[in-house]
Structure formats: structure tokens, C-alpha cells
Give the backbone structure.
Amino acid sequence: MPTATKQLDELIGREYRHGFYTTLETDTVPRGLNEDIIRMISARKNEPEFMLEWRLRAYHHWLTMAEPQWANVHHPAIDYQDISYYSAPKSEKGGPRSLSEIDPALLRTYEKLGIPLKEQEVLAGVAVDAVFDSVSVATTFKEKLAELGIIFCSFSEAVQQHPELVKQYLGSVVPYTDNFFATLNSAVFSDGSFCYIPPGVRCPMELSTYFRINAKNTGQFERTLIIADRDAYVSYLEGCTAPMRDENQLHAAVVELVALENAQIKYATVQNWYPGDKEGRGGIYNFVTKRGECRGANSHISWTQVETGSAITWKYPSVVLLGDNSVGEFYSVALTNHYQQADTGTKMTHVGRNTSSTVLSKGISAGHGQNTYRGQIKVLAGAENARNYTQCDSLLLGDQCSAHTMPYIEVKNPSARVEHEASTSRIGEDQLFYCTQRGIAPEEAVSMIVNGFCKAVFQNLPMEFAVEAQKLLGVSLEGGTG
Amino acid sequence: MLSVKNLHASVDGKEILRGIDLEVGAGEVHAIMGPNGSGKSTLAQILAGREGYQVTAGTVRYLEQDLLMMAPEERARAGVFLAFQYPVEIPGVSNALFLKTGLNSIRKQRGLPELDAMDFLQLLRDKMKLLGMDDTLLQRAVNEGFSGGEKKRNEILQLAVLEPKLAILDETDSGLDIDALKLVADGVNGMRNPERAIVLVTHYQRLLNYIVPDQVHVLSQGRIVRSGGAELALELEQHGYAAIEDQGAAHASA
């Protein structure tokens, strides 16, 4: 092996830093999936009848579906009867009213992850709705937001407190029949976040959620629903990390965004689930359905994602551009190292007139990582003057990894303008030598080059998230050279 | 400062350097000249620590250290600088960040405090003014979209900021028009001092009109076939490499 390649291999060989898990007493339902389990989940959450009915419809539909095979990912068959579909920390039963009521072991877990809730509450001005396994354990800043009429709470709470909003919007973007994993989620989802911004309100802070998988053999099925009413604005951040496991864990989340007239939603994700070890053992299967609907005229939805974790990522945050002049954006950095596989991209569906979309995807493959961009641009017959610009760049580190680009373009209106650009490059020995000749350590050089490659995407992240994302890329690539 | 003894090196089994001997003292400027393929760029690359060359015999001492045992970044931090013949583009990384990271790595090694963004920018602006460079080069990505002349001047800017002890300039004059050449030469001349050694690798005598060397070495087929003062470069200009190579061959076989 050439020395430069060996060096890169060492650099990217570093072990996962968040590999620990917390011992908590949990309330877990037996493994397996059937009507009784779904009734049990719904009953534990004290849900109204319409929720149970919706879950059961989804379950019966799911029974008729087969797992999709089209993605460019490979994994052993998942036994859906061997998964426990609900797990909640026991302390949840009392209902924590403040951070002091929260299990200290749980808080320590977050601290190790660098998410000190207390500090965030005081210093950062970020409202955090922390999801630990399936149940939301802390929601901060809620009262402050409530003064503005903003609802930001766990999904379970929304079902209890605002059933009319849930009933109106749940499944309106991602119906329970949508796809295998979304349908499974609709049947069994345990919690997630809910956010509603009333007309004319600009949410004054970044809303943030951290997800973390902890209990063994527990699939995690969150559901997030964000509604920006007329002239409203919200920026939402989602961050994920998970502790080390030998078993693979299934994560099938659904996120629905609704933007009404003149509303804007920015949704940013930093996903750092456990990616599996160097040999590809363990790691999260991240099969997620994320879709936004620009329902009103002049509405605007943008997705920004930094995906560095999971053994397998299967995810296409999409925008349906219904309203005239609406705008959809997708900015993505996906990094695969070791034996990670990512099949990710977006779907922009132009329905309204003068709609426009921008797609910027940066894929980084290292080790034996496999990275596929899959994107679909669809311009329907009524979408006069639709515009799309897509750029997909791939960066390869080492010679064992691969990158694929699969753009699908479907245009039914002759006034549409759709552009696609793609490039693939390799971190050259040239670039590395140029940096080291200026005194820069090799691992710092790789991190700098990769961050430079991703710059155009990071620019779309809120400041503090951009810094975190840069560090995360560095950590994900660094090797045991120290 | 730099002592190269009987250096042999090959690439993919092909011998490029066949016994180089070179002594460069502090404060001296040496020019290494030779036709294409004579091995002069290979020598520059090996001194800077580039991968892909096999040193098969000989030694290189730099400030009492075995240079060949040091990683490229260690050499840089110890004061070895190479101005690249083909400066590399690094998209998305600003020129300022790149240089600041390099400078601070070097300062750290020397036990100096790292410069913060403000002090660094001030330093950079001062150096750029000296070189007649445009401020906008700072925020542009490293060498991306730079013209040939801008790339070469950027190398000289890095030289000026990093203040190495041993500067090796690999064909820095190639592709420059006369005005750019003068600017580059002024920059290099401004760097001459009793503590610093400079090695100019060049094909043409032209650069040496502006940077007058203490010694000139002619490289041919991996060996130094002649060494002399600045006047040797003029001789080359008049008679071409062929004449000197012939002499060298005659000398070697004698």
C-alpha cells in the first residue's frame, strides 16, 4: 500500500467517541409487532381514539407492503418481530416538571455528548426538547415561546393538548401509506417533537432537539411535525448521537413540515448515530422519511443535513412545491467511513408556477464507505417557469471507497429549466503534501480539505451548528495517529 | 546549513539522482540549473519530503539533523520551505486560514505563541503590501482560480510569512512575465539575510539577473557536473547546456 494511502487509512480509523450507554430502569414492551402491541403503545400514551385508529390503519397497510429493495445499500434481513417497539425511562411516569427531576444518569449521558441542558438553557438561548429513547424528558423555554403563541413540545404532549392540530396535519405530508418504513413508523411511533408557529410570528430562537438511542434492541420511531402558519418563520435543529452497540438498531423516523402562505421553515440536522466499528459490525440503520410541503404561495422550505453516522443511511428530505413562487432547498454533507453505507438525496416536486429549487450535495467516502446521491426533480405539467439547479460533488479518500450519483429528472412542462452538475475528486497526495510542507499536521490537513469541500453547505447551517459540524467531520475522519 | 552527500534516488526503479553533493551555508544563495529531466525538481521534492521517491544511497543533513528521517511537516516546522513549481488548489479553504494554520504550527514548534486572527491579518497585510499583492487574495480559496502569476506570487507570500531558514524555490520564474518576475525577485531579495539560505531551482538564467546567486550548480543526468560563481549562469546563457554537459561528461570519464 502506498504510504499516503496508509496515512489516510490511519487518519480515518479513529473509533467512535460516543460509545457508552446509560443504565436506566426502562419500561419496555415485549418484542414483536401485532395489534395488541399497538393498542398497548397507544394506551400507555393515553391517546385519543383517532390516534389509535390511525395507527391500526397504518399497521394493516404495512402488513401488505414489502421492504424496498431499490436503494444501493446492503444489510442482513431485519426481523421485525424481534424488535421492541416501545421503551421509556421509568421516571417518566411521574412527569418531570423541571431539569432537577430528571434522572441524573440521563443528564450525565447528555453531558458526555456535550449537550449540557442547563447550560444550554441559560447560555445558548436554545430551547431543547430532548428525546431519550422514546420519550421526551425535558422541554425548556416552552413558556417563553408560549407567550408568542408558539407551541413547541413533545409529540405525545401535542396529542393531549392540541389534538385538533395533530388531527389536521398528521400524515398530511407523509401519509401512513407512503412507504414501508414511514408506514411502520405511523403504526408504532412513540414520541417526537411538535411545533406550531402561529400566523405572522417569527420564532425568536433556534428550536433544537437531540435524539439519542439508548436501550438495547429498541427500535426508535420518532415523528416530528412542524407547521409554520401564514407569514411565520422557524429555524429548527435536530442532532443525534448514539452509544456503542453490537446489534444493529433500526431507526425509522418521519418528519413532516408544512409551510403555509409566505412562511419559511429551515430544518437542519446533524446526524451522528453509531456507525458500527471498523469491521462494519453494529451501527444504526437509519431509514428516515422527511418531507416538507410548501402549501402556500411564496413559502420556503430548506433542508440542511450533515450525515456522519449510522451504518446505513436511507434518507431523502424532499419538498413538494405546491404554492406559486415557492422555494425548496436541500443542502447535504454525507460522510461514510469504514463500512458505512449512505443512499441519500432529495426529491423536489414542482407543482405550482414559478417554483424554484436548489440542491447541493457533498458526499465524502473514506475507508470502505459507500456513498450514493439519489435525487429526483419532477416538474408537473402546471408548473410554469419552474427552475432547478442541482450540484453533486463527491470526494474520495483512499482507494477502497466508492461514490455514485443517480439523478432522475422528469419534466412535463416545456418552460422548465433544470440544471445538473456533478463532480468527483480525490484528496490528492498533492493537496496533502502542499499542506504538510507548510507545517500543517496530516490529520489537520485532511480535516481542512474536507471542510473546505463542504463549505458551501456549512454556510447554510446556523453558526453554532456549523462549528459543531466542522468538529464532527474532523472527529469522524481522524485516526489514531496521536 | 544543508549538506547533501552522494545522494542517489529513484522513482519506480528508475534512477533520477546519481550522486549529488551540495553544501549550502547560512546566508548563501545557490542556483541549481539544468535542462529538463536533469533531476533538479526531484532534488527539490526530496529535500521537502515528498512521498514517492526512493533514496537508495547518500545522506542529507540539515542543521545537524538527518533531514531524510523527518516527516514533511517536521521539516517545515524546522524551517524548510518549498515554493512549488505547480502550486496546488484547495477549494473552499481560504488562503488566510491555510497560511494561519501553517504559521501557527511552525510558531508552536519554535515555542512562540500562536497568532490570533487579528495579529495574523495585520502581518499578512504588511507582507502583501511589500509584494504588491491584492487584498482579495486573502479570502479566496487557496490558489483556486488564481492566474499563473498569482499562484507564484502566492508562493512568495507564503515564503515571506513563514520566514523559513532554508527556502527552496522550484522553477518559481517559469510562466512569469517580466513585471511579475521582477516582483517575485524583489520579494526573494527582500528575504536575503545572513541567517537564511536560498536554493533557486531554475531552467533559465533570466531569474538570476534579478536574484544574483553566490553559487551556480549545473545538474545533468542526476549529477552536478559543474559549479561556479554567478558568471557560470552567463556562460550557460551563451553556450547552452549541451556544451557544459559535454565538458561534464568528458570530466566524468577522465
